[in-house]
Amino acid sequence: MAFHRVILLVTAVVASLPGCGYSLRTSKSGSALSKKGIHRIYVEPIANATYRAGVENTVFNAIVRTISGSPEVRAVSRREDADAVLSGKVIGVTRNVSGVLKASDLNPKGLGSPSILVATEYVAVLECEFSLHSIVRDGSKGQQLWRGGFSRSKPFPANNQLWSLGSTSALINESELDRSLADVAELMSGDLVQSMLEDF
Fold first, then answer.
1. Structurally, how many domains does the chain consist of?
2. Does residue 101 lie in a domain region?
3. What is the Cα–Cα distance from 85 to 199, expressed in whole angstroms?
4. What are the pLDDT digits (tens) for 106-133?
5. Is the pTM of this model over 0.85?
6. Between the CA of residue 33 and those of 42, 53, 69, 136, 193, what are the distances in Å?
């Protein structure tokens, strides 16, 4: 009997611990969207005002996945099936140096010049703006329901910290930037959907 009480106590404690990862918070009284009768959202192709080709697709896919995982709303593939339309634009993509080291301190040490500083870490920054509009009967945009802008960032190592030196350095750094932007887009999408669910 004592053994069963211990098991029940451990189960109760584990159940009370916060879960890992991002989850969309919901309310028993319903979200701000559901109270407005918004249950189905059509996500327009994301516009791209930067020179980073393809980042708009990364953001679009992250948003659709996040909305599809929400119990409050769902993404639809046709505008005519939606209660609201979400528009968005990528307005900034930057890669900033956040860590440097003397070239002579890179492995193998002593080969570079001590007077030259090289980047060892970058920060990927993604900036987007979004708006949500109701849809009128003819399929055009109606009243603006919500509007917001987001800026999210993530550090990533330079190629010289990945033991990848040589002529492919630029390609490796670009690949790491794309990977970081994908992670940032997922984080931003969670914040975006949560913001729409909670407030206009």
1. 1
2. no
3. 16
4. 666 767 677 777 778 899 999 999 999 9
5. no
6. 14, 32, 15, 16, 10
